[in-house]
Amino acid sequence: MIKPTELPDKIAIFPLAGALLLPRSRLPLHIFEPRYLQMIEDALRTDARLIGMVQPNAVPGREGPGLHAIGCAGRITQFSETEDGRYMITLGGVSRFRVVEEIEGFSPYRQCTVKWDGFERDLGKEEADTGFHRQKFLELLGRYFEARGLSADWDTLKEAEDELLINSLSMMLDLDPEDKQALLEAPSLETRRETLVTLIEYTMRGGQDDGMMQ
Q1: Which of 71, 72, 142, 180 sits 20 to 30 Å CA-CA off 48?
Q2: Eight-state DSSP code of residue 124
Q3: Helix/strand/coil for 211
Q4: Maximum pairwise Cα distance, the chain
Q5: Does residue 165 contact residue 171 with C-beta atoms inside 8 Å?
Q6: Residue 114, beta-bridge partner list
Q7: 72 contacts 25 by C-beta, under 8 angstroms
Q8: How far is Cα 40 from Cα 89, in angstroms, rounded to an integer?
Q9: CA dihedral 60, 64, 69, 70 (to 10 degrees)
């Protein structure tokens, strides 16, 4: 486990729309662009092996995509190379961070100075959600999966710890990038679960604010 004192002030940034990483969660990635291949190689040379996942954000007047203010750093925990030079990696979520500024330079990939203040709980133990009514949540999830034609391992979902269940669904469900950002920025597991429920219900209403579809 990385200690707060080991978190760097500067990290490489991987701006990938719709890809959500949360603390203590795992995100598999397929890396093939040359600049990001270089990013992985450079990260592997460091002790922390950190990559910052950030949602791109449109900024008026800026050439190219901007970045949301909050991202999540992941440690490269698994790594393999294909015969044609692509990388298959897994990031283990470490902690969220706040972007201070982007570093201008000659690196082929983006880098930022960051602050970790305010996200101390990310480095601690798993969170619990004391207000979580699992059966009611799973019933809603079942209706959502049925409407989307999705299948699930319900035995695993029923037995999963609160944090694993909520975070895994937040990462895996097909939600808009801005919705993913809202889930990332949720200050606690309880507020992330409440946000996720709201997003699922909104999707089932077809994006309308009135009555639930039957």
Answers
A1: 180
A2: S
A3: coil
A4: 55
A5: no
A6: 99
A7: no
A8: 9
A9: 140
